[in-house]
Amino acid sequence: MSKNVFFKRSLIVLLSFSFFISTVISFPATVNAEPEYNFAKALQLSLYFYDANKCGPGITGGRLEWRGDCHVEDKELPLIPLTEGFRGTNLSQSFIDKYRSVLDPDGNGSLDLSGGMHDAGDHVKFGLPQSYAASTVGWGYYEFRDAYIKIGEKEHVEDILRWFNDYFLRSTFRDKDGNVIAFCYVVGEGDIDHDWWNPPELQNSKMIKDFERPAYFATAEKPASDQCAGAAASLAINYLNFKDEDPEYAKKCLDTAIALYDFARKYRGLGYSDEYYMSSYDYDEMSWAAVWLNIATGEKEYIDHIVATDASGKYTGYMQRIIVDTGNDWQNIWVHCWDTVWGGVFAKLAPITNTERDWYIFRWNLEYWSGVAHEDPKDTNFLSKTPAGFSMLNPYGSARYNTAAQLCAMVYRKCKGNTAFTDWAKNQMEYIMGNNPMKRAYIVGYAPDGASHPHHRASHGSKTLNMDNPKDQVHTLWGALVGGPDAEDFHKDITSDFIYNEVAVDYNAAFVGACAGLYTYYGEGHEPVPNFPPKETKPLEFFVEAKVSTSQENNERSQITLRIHNESAYPPHYETRMKVRYYFNISEILDAGQTINDVHMEVYYDENEKCYDGKAKYSEIMKYDDKGTYYVEFDWEGKQIYAAREIQFALIADQDKTTYKGNWNAKNDYSREGLGDEYVITKKCPLYIGNEIVFGEGPEGPIPTVTTIPATPTPDSNNFIEGYIKPDFTYTDTSINSGFKVEIEGSGKSVLTDSKGYFKLTDVKFSSSSQTIKISKENYLYREIKNIVINKNVQLSTAQSPIMMWAGDIVKNGVQDNSINMKDVLEIAKSFNSISGNALYNINADLNLDGAINMSDVIIVSKHFSKTSADYM
Known about the structure:
The chain is α+β, with helices and mostly antiparallel strands.
């Protein structure tokens, strides 16, 4: 068949598929699609934001492949008074000397303040928003535990709660009598941190000059009762959540919570805020801790601390901050949030005291938010709404405040059975899910046309410290609740806009619990996303670019610039053993009677030396073979390399001393091939990490693996069968090579391929009769290789010539029909234009595993349309 005929037939098939997809099957549009209301999915996704905001060691290998250990220097924070450069702590030297045995029992001069959560898209561990988030996520789990269990997220939420509260435990320093001496509530400095827009894994004092992360403590000298009480509340809730399954851990949490609360009562005062999270007062946090300690211990005194009065009826407890005396009440026009947790306080206080006052305050706030009529028909005081009906407290983080009111509505229904408030909450959450004038979900990753540019350094993945570069985020910040709409229902989906697209631990906190409540009351039939989160399509992480200056190249020299890349993102990390080689050939020099001694190298520019942590090591000119091939090597051993590094050098040949002419000719140089004045990616300058090539190859190609095969096998000896298998289409995710099952039919012996497509069946019995090898994998036509005689070791294929497999026999209801036909096209059509994380997404139809079901998958099917397993050659 001629190439032209083949092209025409392929084109007809593709056009037919395109016509079928666009006219017969109805797909959800990627823009302005009907919103999906799935509370199980929203609850599931909401938790993953906290995986993205974890700080410290123990992150690598977790639920998000693109997050890794970070800020590990917090584990050895210097125990010194704060310097002018913000190094150390806010503790005085006299305080350190007095309590050194408590603060530094190991005597190493440092503090372990690792762990906890980054605040938002930045990386400071701020006090109030962190304790608010920890307690509120814990509160949601306490109220609606079954929701998390039913969708399979129990272990996940408990991991998050431990991560928060283990940090509070680690940050609490107590003497031998159990009394709190100091509590660390902030690590980092906002003004320093905000100067750097890069992933947290890359932030350390070795690579960023003056990048300090000071620690701020509550002590008797410097009280911070608001901070201590907030952490105490979280630890008390954590006790309740873990007391049945891990009583020893739960007891430790409760014991620390009581100690922190007692310390806060003894030393009242507001903590350091760095002007980012300035607390209004501590009465609400003290009440928040007290009400949960009452629930945890049953001790009535904690409630007395809130509602105590004097003989005249004036409040002397924490209530005094909002109500003068028992003859008055209070109307809360705000909501449960990091700075004022009164909304949460009364949601838990009312069922305990069961007073008309506390129920009124709890209920009135929900009436105010929802627009549900007040019990007093004369009361017409309600929160304003956007034109589309979204209850709007403040345009800076409008969605966080709204979802906090939703959580309180869920708790009210749990107590009172009232459905009016939760009906309102359901309507509001559906607005957030996309039922709004922008047709945009404000939950990242929830819908294809949702917000996708959160103000978040880790997910953005900039390599240039620029929030506008790249334009689109490198990673999906699953489940993050962005700032949300303004008072006119408008929203900007831009990374740099920290009003519309801010994300933070406090933004998601009540959102999680609201989703759990909505799933409990309205989630029948809602299901979480299977196999979540999906693998991201990984870009080329290590590679080399090169160029030559053609104007500088002549018969005496070549000037070359190499640019090595560490674009690692899973997770991002520095490499300290990178090196690159440039190969060249001097046969023309040798033919003219000169030697390698007539060639030398000069380095003109070393970017790492000029801009980072020191110069590379430059090798002497090294001999490679006896055919005139040599190389030079540039080694960044011990240097912290991330993103790109340039090195510019020249290879210069001396003139022939007899003819006074130059004999240099770069056209036969292996690494010079394909280079010009502009950068191009080249595989002919191999890139190493240590002694392993991670990109490219040398002049002789990759070093082959030598297998010794017995010359004369005996009937009693065992053999092996090995080879390589790959799909016959282009792909970027090498994991697609893995999972092909190779079996000897009838023997029960099988093996799966690895990520390189390699397999090796070992201990195969000697046989003089022919065998059949079957290769299979879901969504591929199985293939049989017959008449294999195993009387010696068998190599079925090589990496250069692998066995090719045809994709397109898509699994349908757990079954494949061993044919690529219209049924497979229909499977793609059902999910066409969906992406991973969308309810319509079907991973079986995503044949190239790029996270999207699109024309690429159609083309793969078209390649072998109407074929069966019998059509393999």
